[in-house]
Amino acid sequence: MAERPGALVIEDSADMRRLLCHVLRMAGFDVSEAATGAQGLDLVDRVRPDLVTLDLMLPDMDGIEVCRRLRGMTTAYVIMLTGLVEETDLLVGLEVGADDYMTKPFSPRELRARVAAMFRRPRTAEGRRTGGEPKVIEFGDLLIDEESREVRLADRPVALTRTEFDLLVALASNPRRVWGREALTRQVWHTDWPGDDHVIDVHIANLRRKLGDDARSGRWVRTVHGVGYRFGG
């Protein structure tokens, strides 16, 4: 029997925590839960989750700080949940490593759909091999190893989140193709869920920053105004 994926719910509201745990268990996860950021960070090392849902407003520390620390401990998918409507807070969450965000109240059905879309994304290059060999994409001094999910620029490692890596592979595997945001969503998330344009835009901005790119004349990721993005290597 295949091992069930693990999820960690970090949420201070008992009612919301019960709801999240129920939804994720029904979706096939083994679920652990924490009521504070400190408890959640302590559990990460022990349960090694594949998914983390993280409340932005926690009683002991800011959810943004928890997310930042999580990214130094795990490559799990992170969905940030918040009752706040301040766009800045949500975008900062994406900038420090969250893969997605949802605002409360949210539909359990939508949460399941977003989680399912994340886990349809390939973790390795199994779906992109030629002749049984792992695919390594090289453009100049940029090297992308799909099997190890490692990126090196000028022989220096570039630390990317899962979403940033998947976006880079999509763009670099189809150089010169112009990708609209909806097309990138379908390619990376493997879903027709339209999502929020800000999610793609912020992940692209983070990817550019880590590659030392310039938004106006990017070497690697270029903006095609009114359309979307293309790989410019």
Note the topology.
Blueprint: E1 6-10, H1 14-26, E2 30-34, H2 37-47, E3 51-55, H3 63-71, E4 77-82, H4 87-95, E5 100-103, H5 108-119, E6 136-139, E7 142-145, E8 150-153, E9 156-158, H6 162-173, E10 179-180, H7 181-189, H8 197-210, E11 221-224, E12 228-231
Parallel strand pairs: 1-2, 1-3, 3-4, 4-5
Antiparallel strand pairs: 6-7, 7-8, 8-9, 10-12, 11-12
Computed over alpha carbons, the radius of gyration is 18 Å
- H-E string: EHEHEHEHEHEEEEHEHHEE
Measured by DSSP, the beta-strand proportion falls in: 15-25%
Shape: globular
Tell me the span between the first and last alpha carbons. 44 Å
Characterize the main sheet.
5 strands, parallel
Poorly predicted sequence stretches spanning 5 or more consecutive residues: 123-134
CATH topology type of the largest domain:
Rossmann fold
Helix content: 25-40%
CATH-level-2 architecture of the largest domain: 3-Layer(aba) Sandwich
How many structural domains does the protein architecture include?
A: 2
CATH class of the largest domain: Alpha Beta
Per DSSP E runs of 2 or more residues, the count of β-strands stands at: 12
With strands numbered from the N-terminus, the spatial order across the biggest sheet is 2-1-3-4-5
CATH superfamily of the largest domain: Response regulator
Mean pLDDT: 84
Pfam families: Response_reg, Trans_reg_C
Protein name: DNA-binding response OmpR family regulator
Modified residues (4-aspartylphosphate): 55
Domain OmpR/PhoB-type: 134-233
